[in-house]
Each structure stands twice: as structure tokens, then as C-alpha cells.
Design goal:
The protein is of the alpha+beta class. The protein folds into 2 domains: 122 residues, Diaminopimelate Epimerase, Chain A, domain 1 (Roll); 122 residues, Diaminopimelate Epimerase, Chain A, domain 1, CATH 3.10.310.10. It is 22% helix and 44% strand. An 8-stranded mixed β-barrel has the order 1-2-3-4-5-6-7-16. A hairpin with a 5-residue loop joins strand 15 and strand 16. It is globular, with a radius of gyration of 17 Å. It starts with 5 loop residues before the first strand and ends with a strand.
Length: 256
Amino acid sequence: MTGGIAYSLFNPSGNMTLLVETPIPEPEQPALAKRLMEREPETEQVGFVKVSDGGIALRMAGGEFCGNASMSAAFLFMLRTGRRSGTVPVSVSGTPEPVAVSLEALTDGLWRGSVRMPRPLSVGLHRFPDGRELPLVRFPGISHVILQEEADPSSSEALASVWCRELKAEALGLMFLDPDRSKLTPLVYVPAADTMFWESSCASGTTAVGAYLAAEGRKALRLSLKQPGGTLEIEAGTDGRLILSGTVQLVRQGTL
């Protein structure tokens, strides 16, 4: 390909996200994503974008939905249009409606972003074959199971794969929540991209926790969750509104 494949690496609250601007046929995207992740080993997820005058379209390599990647895509739109603040509509894989991302430049290349997250398809408890009844939050494009226990890497990764098939989910997150310390440890499995990562932060998983706790307590809440790579904040309204906030910055740009 003449000129190579242009990409940008972003850091949204530690969840390193690589976005490709060069047009790539959809069937070739998962294989290319793997090559790019080998080249940029910090990368936890890869998306493919198309910038237009009115906004930006994003397709994740596995076709899933991702809030942190949506924030990164909106930031890329800001860079390409020279804007320092505003709201960007982002059309994202895994959800039928564009998400609105508001961004504002802070200092030293760091931006503050807020994403109007999609509403869950369902919020409730699910009984798994091993007898456990756990909170399950389904979004378009990804589902999350919330566990209030210590994460065991090997058994958790096996469970993520098994439960994803059982739930027939496009992607599955296991969100290990420590409510006493406001701490979240996210594991995300995306079968279409053949990736499983202990992510540095997870926007949709944070949103799932907020949506479940708001539904359980039947009241609005604002919650900050410390994650391995940074802190994300979720605001859940009584009207179902879910606003996810965090930071994002450009790490570097490259060509494959």
C-alpha cells in the first residue's frame, strides 16, 4: 500500500488505544490489528476510523463497542479540525446510534472528555451454570459481569471465554469491583478480534457498574473508580442518562 498504514496511539485513562486512519477492508482488520499490536505492544485495542466534516466513524477490530476508543476517536477529530473544545458525534461499532463526546483541552496535551454512553439493553442478575448469581449488564456490542471478589488471572480468563459463549455476547467484560476502595479491575474478551486483556481501564465496564448500582439503589449516583491505568467517573441519572468522564492524550503517530 503506497505510503503505508497511518495510525495514532492514544492514552484514554491508561487504556492504550490505536486508531487507523488508512481505509482497510473490514475482513482484513482483525489480522492487521494483531500486526499493529505487535508493533506497538502497549496497545490494548485497535479501531479503524473515517473522519468527515460532521464527525467521525469508528469500527473496532472485533466489531465491539468501546467508550475509551470513542473518546480517542473524538480527540482525533479535534486534532484534524484544529478545535480546542466542543462535542463530536462518533458513530461506533456495536451500537446503532452515534455517541456524543465532549472534549476540552487542559494542559500539556492532556484533554478532559465526557461520553454520553449508550443505555444498557438490560440490567439484572444472571444465574451461571456453576450456581453463581451475578450482576449482568448488557450493552449493544458488549456485556459485562460484575464480580465483588479478588481476580484470579487463569480461572478468570477461562470463565470469560466460557461465559461469553453462554451469553452469546459479541464481547464480554469481567469487572472485578472492590466497592470499599472504589477500585475496578477489568478483564475484556473480544472473540472476533481474538483478544483477551486485563485492561488498564474500561469505559463500558465502569458504565456497567454505575448502571447496576443506580438500578439496585433506585437513585442517581456519581462514582469514581480507580483502575490500573487511571480513574474513570460515571454519572448515572434517574432518567437513564449515563455520562462517562476521563482524560485522553495523544502518545504518538506512526506508519506501518
